[in-house]
Amino acid sequence: MSNIPLESGLYFVRLVGEEMAPVIKHRQNCIWVNSANSKYGLSLNLRRRFSDYCGTFGKDRVRFDVVLLNEAPRVLEQKLDFHFRKYRMRSPSGRLNEWLEGIDPEDALQEIREICSELPDRSVVATLPAKTPSSTSPMTMHKRERVFTPDDILKAARYLDAHGMTEQALTEIHHSKLQRYQDTYDYFSKISSFRGTTNSIYAARLDYIMRGHMSGGNFADLVPQVLEQFPHSN
Description:
about 230 residues; elongated; two-stranded antiparallel sheet
């Protein structure tokens, strides 16, 4: 549970096992779901939302994926509601719900990631060195000109740490010696801005890998890719 960030964002949840369970604990007159169903949603506190689902279904049954961190726009939720309209379940009162049926959860998650990859990047534009990407796929069309802050580094590092990127990989994208996640947390939680471009490049690399992983990429491909896209400045 500690791997789920305390931040806001878009999540995707599904269950393990074929046994049907009510989506509201101890209530019979509601939607019932099992492993054939899945749900997307926005939350201001992803870890608390995960805890809520564990309380309803039991921790061993809950599979919880963080799809998008921080300030997932409401327009995204509306877009997902429309996209999945034919799969959305209705409550006994007739209200459409975000729980889905009739679509494989893995397919639903992939479609959500594709929709998220098409979101415009609303970052502030600034000058940051990077090479032109050789591909126009959503994963490589990351905005490479942007103002980053220490908070961006902390957010991306927590995500990558929680999703299993090794400290060896973290060291590869860092600009000096062996780098542990705790080193990154300790240093960047104490400063409010960057001096020079070195840490901005580190931030861009972390952010690129985080976004690529959210879009379905894997760390083995993303790490060498980001080193080419964001070389050290001379």
